Amino acid sequence: xxxxxxxxxxxxxxxxxxxxxxxxxxxxxxxxxxxxxxxxxxxxxxxxxxxxxxxxxxxxxxxxxxxxxxxxxxxxxxxxxxxxxxxxxxxxxxxxxxxxxxxxxxxxxxxxxxxxxxxxxxxxxxxxxxxxxxxxxxxxxxxxxxxxxxxxxxxxxxxxxxxxxxxxxxxxxxxxxxxxxxxxxxxxxxxxxxxxxxxxxxxxxxxxxxxxxxxxxxxxxxxxxxxxxxxxxxxxxxxxxxxxxxxxxxxxxxxxxxxxxxxxxxxxxxxxxxxxxxxxxxxxxxxxxxxxxxxxxxxxxxxxxxxxxxxxxxxxxxxxxxxxxxxxxxxxxxxxxxxxxxxxxxxxxxxxxxxxxxxxxxxxxxxx
Length: 368
Description:
Layout: E1 2-6, H1 16-26, E2 32-38, E3 47-50, E4 53-58, H2 68-82, E5 87-91, H3 95-106, E6 111-116, H4 122-128, H5 133-141, E7 145-148, H6 151-159, E8 165-168, E9 190-194, H7 203-209, E10 218-221, H8 227-236, E11 243-247, H9 251-259, E12 261-266, H10 275-282, E13 287-289, E14 306-307, H11 313-324, H12 329-346, H13 349-363
Parallel strand pairs: 1-2, 1-5, 2-4, 5-6, 6-7, 7-8, 9-10, 9-12, 10-11, 12-13, 13-14
Antiparallel strand pairs: 3-4
Helix pairs in contact: 1-13, 2-3, 3-5, 7-11, 10-12
């Protein structure tokens, strides 16, 4: 079986969606995968084999993303003439999904799988797609099957009019602390957030919470467009000695920051799933989150983590201080162990890949 993947980005540019494609395809050896993406920095090879995927890169630099639907559709037509595909796989309902829609309209017999990984809120997406809403909805509706990484995204597909089969298959986590004994959380270390510096991750609220959290540093791992704005807020609050912006780091280095932390916090405004929370749980770090998007799929208050209120610095601080309080150490360790066990049982890439392989093989026989 041969599958053509449409994805706006791919290695070496890696986020949650790109990591998912890599981890899934590397574990499925009896299927052939081709992938069309953007040459985001203009310095990558136009064609190369990465793992189990033959990658074709189009355009030059980020501007090419806006032309990707047409460029990718044309490339897909050329490839299909040489080696017909059994299915196409679109990574998110963005320009990649639009390219898949163009291809599906031209070759309706080829099955079309759409994966939903989006972390933006429904309102944010709706505002960005107002000028093309019928086409945007068609990205969902013309799919033969949808795979969503959370029930939140499954509900979004239904809201946009999709009536076919939807499978909820989350992303996985590949990193785990040695399970030989119970984890002990570190009360005397720093507060950490692994977050892109974007509005949806609620970092402004987290920074505003820090004056209520005594004698702790906040370490923010990740880059993004709000660095200057957040930096000004840190200075205005007199927190320059207590808040550190690490910037983007290698995927492996993220876990070094997690494992040395007392608590992980990301008071998100929206989340598709929240893989960073799962990675913190896998690294035995207590987690504080907001009850938005896909987070309630895995976080249960007082059992696998703690919820704070959305846009509420006081609530964030209260939950941080609760975890840091030595009187609550036994409870916190129990929650940390529960969360780690839950991630091990439900969010390993091996099981995710097996479920995705089943979807790939079954989609050929779906009737639309």
